[in-house]
Amino acid sequence: xxxxxxxxxxxxxxxxxxxxxxxxxxxxxxxxxxxxxxxxxxxxxxxxxxxxxxxxxxxxxxxxxxxxxxxxxxxxxxxxxxxxxxxxxxxxxxxxxxxxxxxxxxxxxxxxxxxxxxxxxxxxxxxxxxxxxxxxxxxxxxxxxxxxxxxxxxxxxxxxxxxxxxxxxxxxxxxxxxxxxxxxxxxxxxxxxxxxxxxxxxxxxxxxxxxxxxxxxxxxxxxxxxxxxxxxxxxxxxxxxxxxxxxxxxxxxxxxxxxxxxxxxxxxxxxxxxxxxxxxxxxxxxxxxxxxxxxxxxxxxxxxxxxxxxxxxxxxxxxxxxxxxxxxxxxxxxxxxxxxxxxxxxxxxxxxxxxxxxxxxxxxxxxxxxxxxxxxxxxxxxxxxxxxxxxxxxxxxxxxxxxxxxxxxxxxxxxxxxxxxxxxxxxxxxxxxxxxxxxxxxxxxxxxxxxxxxxxxxxxxxxxxxxxx
Amino acid sequence: xxxxxxxxxxxxxxxxxxxxxxxxxxxxxxxxxxxxxxxxxxxxxxxxxxxxxxxxxxxxxxxxxxxxxxxxxxxxxxxxxxxxxxxxxxxxxxxxxxxxxxxxxxxxxxxxxxxxxxxxxxxxxxxxxxxxxxxxxxxxxxxxxxxxxxxxxxxxxxxxxxxxxxxxxxxxxxxxxxxxxxxxxxxxxxxxxxxxxxxxxxxxxxxxxxxxxxxxxxxxxxxxxxxxxxxxxxxxxxxxxxxxxxxxxxxxxxxxxxxxxxxxxxxxxxxxxxxxxxxxxxxxxxxxxxxxxxxxxxxxxxxxxxxxxxxxxxxxxxxxxxxxxxxxxxxxxxxxxxxxxxxxxxxxxxxxxxxxxxxxxxxxxxxxxxxxxxxxxxxxxxxxxxxxxxxxxxxxxxxxxxxxxxxxxxxxxxxxxxxxxxxxxxxxxxxxxxxxxxxxxxxxxxxxxxxxxxxxx
Lengths: 469, 457
Hints:
The complex is a heterodimer. Chain A is α+β, with helices and mostly antiparallel strands. Chain A contains twelve helices and 20 strands. In chain A, α6 (about 185-200) packs antiparallel against α7 (about 205-220), α9 (about 285-300) packs parallel to α10 and α10 runs parallel beside α11 (about 375-385). Chain B has three domains: about 5-60, no CATH class; about 130-220, PDZ domain (Pdz3 Domain, Roll), CATH 2.30.42; about 220-440, 2-enoyl-CoA Hydratase, Chain A, domain 1 (Alpha-Beta Complex), CATH 3.90.226. The longest helix of chain B is centred in the first third of the chain and has 27 residues, at about 5-30. Chains A and B meet through α1, α2, α3, α6 and α7 of A and α1, α2, α3, α4 and β17 of B.
């Protein structure tokens, strides 16, 4: 009898142990997801006080606008000809956020539908869809008309866009012959017609312009939809019309879209195994670990110098960049300030053990596809270690963007600050300029060769210094 | 079976619970790889994590399925923006955009938000007057803004502004390269204030300067003339339905009757509508009895609005109504009622198709919201929303023409023929011919979209 009870107890204990284990595993997964929610948030960066960012500016609450909004909602609920359903209200909430954030006119601040949120989450894991490129909606002025263009920040390694030869800075003007329309297509149309009215004498000419603009709008594809299509739809074939700097005529590029994933870090030995080129394709949760692993491998192989290739590397969260940075910059200030509305916060890098750190000669490759957090890393290396940058000017958007998930699976991203290198000038809008400028020849080999040469002289210097000691 | 005593149950439960906790901790311990700090950290976080587990279990079924509450979400995001957004936050602008976005989700272009400025100009339009100098402006082929017509009995007329004067400056500011809306804005202002116009007139070497005092000016909503004095064919064009238009229409009709009016052409082409009341007033002038329009309220209840007897102060004449695809809303109420009751013939092209009534609700801060609150049906009970009204006799407009010009305005000349048939001046066979012509020509439909925004005169 006693044995029987004891065995029940033991079984129970075992069961509860297992249950606890399972619960923790589940909660780890949840926490990962939660971290990803704030993945782009600088608030969680190591060394940054978490509580500080929230509470100071709630004082001036102006109830006016809120009341107006409330009155409108109530009137619609009471009087709209078709009774409002709860699902209508959900849609109204989303559209309200979408329009509200769009009115800030900031490409990094916008509303994301649940499927877009899913894409963001997957991208932070190194999984991509569609043509496989980071795209930006940029304001570009042509003549008197300023309008939004869909511009390639950079294609992603091994993705369809990279294979099809799309380059950073390519301006996608049409998809399958349909013009990509700016946010307010009518504004452009009326501008065009106004310009023509000033020039043209003939009414027929103006009428033709009106007709062609109308046709353009009717047949075109709105920019937000175009962006969405290109980064989400797999297993389709698109023909993109692309305007490229230095190429007089628009080029047509055929791209077959597909889902793919990228290894965040890869490396190869060069120059008779004396040097190595480490390629960071994207910043994901795994990037830092893999980078550490790579550095340890290379050290054990006796490599004398490292080229860090950050060309065509975009996005990523600040945390992953910081973890990657500690491989090179141990236990110091990151040399980057996080400038938000009310304060400046210096960002620190955590201590990292000696065998994981690269302290030998280092050269960084950058180009106009080196964007956002990648350029922050490049700037930090330059400012902290006087690392030389080889290549072209970087993209120029070191905004700190925070991702906030809403209850219904949708979300918003918003610009909460800017990362400012302490010693380099503000790179926002201008990009980080290289120490050794080398234009791309399309194959990128020229830039790599230049980097190898520089590394050789650096390695020679360290040898001399050691010999001198 | 013996009852389990409490002194054994408590330690047993404790053991079971500790097993759970140990199980919960072990993945962390394994992951720490012997790093003691990480173990202590996870121990410290334990209560929080356990609690999180409970909260999550409760929330699981509530999330995802439930739609976002509008106001709460909006104010949460607004607060977040105010606290953390890097850049300036204009609360009013954000809210107005949010309201516009919110209303766009209803998928009804007529339910819309009007900011204080838009609301003000809408009120001016409905009241039918504004303060200004009373000159109709247009852009000529060189892109210059010129006076198309100084309206009768207005400050512009009294100051001696003439048709075709090109405006070169307003208050000594050159207006080159400004578009017509901007010029109109500069010229308008509060009543009693002065504006100085610089005008270039053909044949006059120097720029002419005129200082004009702004006054309340009425929009002219009605244009009338006799087209055919011999047969007594009159023409009235209605630009919009506002508070003034019925009185002006009444006057115009009286004027035409002095010229021996026998048949009437009512031109509703390009008329975007306006006030429901004005439509009922105008409609009452043509419909002998019964409802002019049936309002179907939210919930389906139908309220017919009957003919106003006091509007029957004129004789009824044979009637042709000219319509096109820009004839909307109140225009469609009038033409729909005329078609249904058979008191006139519709000539032209299919109308716009707006069968919804909006109510304008003013808001606390001077803005307003227009909400579609009801549908309207023609007297026979047809909902024309998104369908439009088919004319009795279809006549497509030519590519270029001038409204009211007997040489180029084919719809008008065909309308006159139809009217003559009604008046017994032409044989009935003319109608069949017109119908046949319409069928043959219907393939060459030309569609010009809404790309060009034109300035309001």
